[in-house]
Structure formats: C-alpha cells, structure tokens
Amino acid sequence: MRALTLASCLLVLVACGKDSGSTKPASPSESEQAAGADPMEIAPAPQLRATLKLGEPVMAEVGATITVAARIEVDETRVARVSSPLMGRISTLIVREGQDVRKGDVLAQLNSIGLSDAQLGFLKALSQGQLAQRAVERAQQLLKAEVIGSAELQRREAEFTQASAELDGARDQLELLGMTPEAIEELRRTRRIRSVSRVVASMDGTVLTRKVTAGQMVQAADTIVEIADLSQVWLVADVPETNAGGLVEGQAVEAEISALANLKVNGTLSFVSHTLNPETRTVRVRMDVPNPARRLKPAMLATMALRDHAEKRQVVPVSAVVREGDAELIFVERSPGVYVLRPIVLGGEFGNRRVLASGIQPGEKIVIDGALHLNNERRRRAVRGPGAAE
Questions:
Q1: What domains are defined for the chain?
Q2: Predicted TM-score (pTM) above 0.70
C-alpha cells in the first residue's frame, strides 16, 4: 500500500513539470513584430515628432506655366530711320552711337549739287512771280486809262497765278530737301545759294546706329542714323509650336532679366503672332515693358514664364511629397503620434506646390514639413528590424 502511494506522487510531479514547460513566455522581438507589422507605418520618437508640421490640403488658384528663352528688343513703333534727302557727300557728322538727341537737332551735314539746283529753281520761280505781279499791276493801270482791254488783264493775271504756283512748288521742294523755313526766307532775302544740306532728327530718342562716315557719298533715301525711343522696349520670345496652342493676348507673363540680378518683370502679352515660323516651328510673342531708367537694353537675354488662366485646385506643399521608386506618397496621421505612408495621385507643379488629384480624404491630417526625415527614420527601422534598440 505504501509503495502504491509513492508511485502516485511521482506521476503527479512529472505531470506538473510538463505543464510548467509549456507555459514559457514569448520573446520580446516576436511581440514587437506582431505589433508593428505594417512597414509603411511609423510612430517616431518624441524628438523627431516635435520637428514635424501637420496640416491639410488647401484650395488655391493654379495655372500651367511655360518657360521659354526671351530677349529685349527695340519697340519698332518707336524707331525712326533718318535718311539723306538727296544725293551728296557727308561733310560733317555731329552725332555718335548712344547719344540722346531731340527732335530738330542737326545730325549731319552734306554738300549737294542737287540742293544748289533746287535753290536756283526757287530763285528763278521767285523772279518770275515778281515779274508777273508787276505785269498785273501795270495792266490794271492801263485798263483804267483805257489803253488795253480787260482780256489782256485777265491773261496777265493767269500768268501771275501760274508763277505763284511754281514758286510754292519750289519752296516745298526745298523743305523736302531739309531746308528750314528760316533758311528759305534767308535765301529769298539774300539770294545766296548754299549747297550745304542739314540732316535733322525727326524724333526724340537715342542714336542706335550710325550708317555713314565723314566724306562718304550717299544717295537720296540712304539711312544716315537710326533713332529709337528706349523709354519702352519689347520683351520677345519664340514659343515652340507644341506649347503655343493656348497663347492669347492679355495672358499673364513673368520674366527674369539675368543681367540685372534676375530682375523680375510682370505684365501681359501685347502680341501673339497669327503665323508660325516654318523653319523654327515657333510662334513669336511679346510684351511691352516700360523702361524709364533705360536699364533694359536691346539684346539683353531673359527668361519668360507664360501662365495659363488660373483655376481653383486642391494643392499640397512639395515638402509633403515622398518619392519611393516611381510612386509619390504622403504621410497621413493615423492616430496621435502614428503616421502611415500612403500613395497619392498628383498633378502639375506650380511654384512650391503640387496639385492633389486623389488619395487624401477631407479632414485628414498630413505631414507637410519634415516628411523626408520621417521617411528616413521609417527606412532605418525597416532595415534594422522592429526589435532593434534605438
């Protein structure tokens, strides 16, 4: 009986030993793996969490932007090409390139046989007119004395009218050749022929180019100088055909002038060409730019940004977007202190913002600043494993 009792006790002890071995607790690493199974989720340490900035997508006006090379050009509506009124030899050049001139300033002088001939023709017409006038006065006296008839007076009056017309024509020709009314009056008074013709500025502006040199023979209508009013210039660009379909006059433009410390110039298109350049496959556009201080100089290079008409779209900061391969993602706050990296669909980029097409629900908080550091920490943990020490 005693032996049976002892055997029973031994059996109970063995059974208890087996039960205690089967209740051994799981390792810490196994528990952490079960809790953090989503590799796109992260609960950062308080120090990193304090650097994050949260926000929501916002509505903003955006429009597509085309950036093209541009250049400063002279406003062609403010250019005058001053030419020689007649054939002659340049005797004096008074102006130089870059010089500011006023309307009526003398630019050059030339000696011309043609001017001498025109002055001689004026003096002949003047003498004929005076002679015809005296003949009319004499005929009026003779008619009163009944020496001649009225027909003779009418004949002489007709001759005087013709002589007056010829004199007016000769005077107009001298003015076309560059003689001032004062110079023509002096010629009438002194009857001295001067073969020196003056070339004068036809507008206020700056001398862009000087086409002749002293002593050079020039023909009538040859350009002597080019003058331009540079208080307003053109900013011109050639837009590729593929981007020119939506261009319209009045479209907003922003330009940068690299030579002037990236000076920004804002305005609108004043001209969009109705034709396409078949060689370059581009469309010419321009904007008018005020230039009162003459800082913008023809041939300066620039960059022109053409913006389409804006529309309201949902946008997120560029700093909120994380790239993983070809995918674009954003950290969304799942719960306080816990963030999950979620794929989203983005549109165009406008400045430092991207259009959000889909992927974020109204009211959800996203990481708008610090997403890059948060993603680096998520990657580091994924490499080291969830059970690694911080």
A1: 40-60+312-383 (2.40.420.20), 67-76+229-310 (2.40.30.170), 114-193 (1.10.287)
A2: no
